[in-house]
Write a structure and sequence with these properties.
GO terms for molecular function: chondroitin hydrolase activity. 44% of the residues lie in helices and 7% in strands. It is mostly helical. Strand 3 and strand 4 (159-160) form a beta hairpin. The structure holds 2-acetamido-2-deoxy-beta-D-glucopyranose (6 copies).
């Protein structure tokens, strides 16, 4: 374990952030992907493992918001860094590209089976409102997604439902769902409907109670019984085992609780996010590479990494750093974020691929089947290979770079 700081002891001599985070190759690759979007639109989710070529999925795939929101992220970067030929940002109108790519998501609703993923799908519209708060299309999309998520709330359980089940009394909630409830706050602010905000708070409080182990690690899935409201099972879906900690889930949780603090100011959420982050950092291996599951066996070596878990965690740690009230309290989190980004860059940066990063692990138990939507399948548990890059890894890599610049922790070049 090499990460240090107040969380873990001594003071770290921190290297500066890897230059790849601000490479002109990023806008170059993203623009090429924008220009290659199929008609009717489909979105990149992950790459082929050998050629690094994007695999495209329908708009009602849970990851479909991440590519459009990347246009907004590069628009943000252009406003932070300027658009020049040297930094690569000058080659496109990123806002126009993000807006245009978002149109494939506008008409989605529950009939498309998008379930709790409406939160992920809302991200481009949330960014649109940051640019233009009166865009009626974005407002309507956010409100429609929030209503769809609220319709999945069960008051007896206290959560919004993640996956649909054959037995309606079986009510699974995945830790990822902490990322989706943000849309409820946006819609509550737009409409004044306090119920939406209360649903988000109830979901977070129930998750805080049941998904987190005493050591600050998380279960991926908690199943509730809607008749009794009781927990009936705690298990994994994408992790190594029911008692292990799936790294991307842990990263979603750090972000989700820091985000709850951002929207409510409730210190319990901040304390929870810190606890989850402390587990994450204390359990990183000595090379600083985020494994796909903290408890997955080391052999056969190398134990697969998950670059998306790394970049989500880095972004989450930077949000946690911004939640702290003193620079001294923020520094260990931002130092750790930079270290995680540098270490994943050293491993996974792939100039020859269409994606920015390799070494993403989409769904280990399902073998990362390339033949369809890999999430939510009830595959038998298998510890086999399959390493693919998920677009969300690239998106959070860019977002983390933007956050570092706006937090004055890195320069544009
Ligand atoms: C409003 O937002 C939608 C969805 O994000 C986008 O497609 C559209 O271009 C925006 N309209 C304007 C006038 O900016
Ligand atoms: C507020 O949102 C909830 C959940 O979608 C809905 O049931 C309720 O009717 C809404 N209230 C108003 C006043 O629109
Ligand atoms: C939930 O509890 C009810 C009442 O005890 C029972 O009939 C039902 O089978 C349970 N559902 C699950 C998924 O365990
Ligand atoms: C990273 O991916 C490369 C292939 O792109 C693979 O050879 C290597 O073993 C992976 N390393 C880890 C730690 O996942
Ligand atoms: C991990 O990152 C830290 C901080 O940037 C660096 O000192 C260390 O050499 C990196 N380790 C590897 C294996 O890249
Ligand atoms: C995963 O891959 C193994 C080995 O190639 C194969 O035997 C198994 O059927 C696959 N499982 C799934 C769920 O695709």
């Amino acid at each position: 374990m090499m990460l240090t700081g107040p969380v873990l002891g001594t003071v770290l001599q921190l290297a500066s952030a890897s230059t790849q985070l601000f490479s002109p190759l990023i806008p170059q690759k993203v623009l090429a992907t924008f220009n290659a979007l199929p008609t009717p639109v489909k979105y990149p989710q992950y790459t082929d493992t050998t050629t690094g070529k994007w695999q495209y999925f329908t708009p009602w795939t849970w990851t479909s918001g991440f590519f459009p929101v990347t246009g907004y992220a590069l628009n943000t970067r252009k406003s932070l860094c300027g658009g020049t030929l040297a930094n690569g940002l000058g080659v496109a109108d990123w806002l126009a590209l993000g807006r245009s790519a978002s149109t494939g998501l506008i008409g989605l609703d529950a009939s498309h089976g998008i379930g709790h993923d409406v939160g992920f799908l809302s991200f481009p519209f949330v960014e649109e409102l940051a640019v233009n708060p009166t865009n009626a299309t974005a407002i309507a999309a956010i409100n429609r997604f929030a209503t769809a998520l609220a319709n999945r709330f069960n008051a007896k359980v206290g959560c919004t439902r993640s996956w649909d089940t054959v037995d309606p009394t079986d009510f699974p909630v995945i830790i990822d769902n902490m990322m989706n409830i943000e849309v409820l706050f946006h819609s509550a602010a737009l409409t004044g409907n306090v119920t939406l905000k209360n649903i988000a708070i109830s979901h977070a409080d129930t998750t805080m109670l049941n998904h987190i182990r005493p050591d600050g690690s998380t279960w991926h899935v908690v199943e509730y019984n809607t008749t009794t409201g009781n927990v009936i099972k705690k298990r994994t879906q994408q992790g190594y085992s029911d008692t292990s900690t799936w790294a991307r889930g842990q990263a979603w949780a750090i972000y989700g609780f820091a985000n709850m603090y951002r929207f409510t100011g409730d210190g319990n959420y901040l304390a929870t996010s810190r606890r989850l982050a402390t587990y994450f950092l204390r359990n990183l291996p000595a090379d600083g590479i985020v494994p796909w599951d903290f408890n997955a066996p080391l052999a056969p070596a190398p134990r697969p990494a998950d670059s998306s878990a790394a970049t989500v965690a880095a972004t989450a740690l930077l949000l946690l750093a911004r939640s702290e009230s003193t620079p001294a309290a923020a520094k260990p989190w931002s130092d750790a974020a930079i270290q995680i980004l540098n270490n994943i860059t050293a491993l996974a940066w792939r100039p020859s691929w269409q994606s920015l990063l390799a070494n993403g692990t989409v769904n280990m138990p399902a073998n990362n089947s390339l033949t369809g939507i890999v999430y939510g399948t009830n595959s038998p548990f298998l510890r086999v290979t399959g390493r693919l890059d998920a677009y969300l890894g690239d998106y959070y890599y860019i977002k983390a770079g933007n956050d570092l610049i706006s937090m004055s922790l890195a320069r544009c070049t």
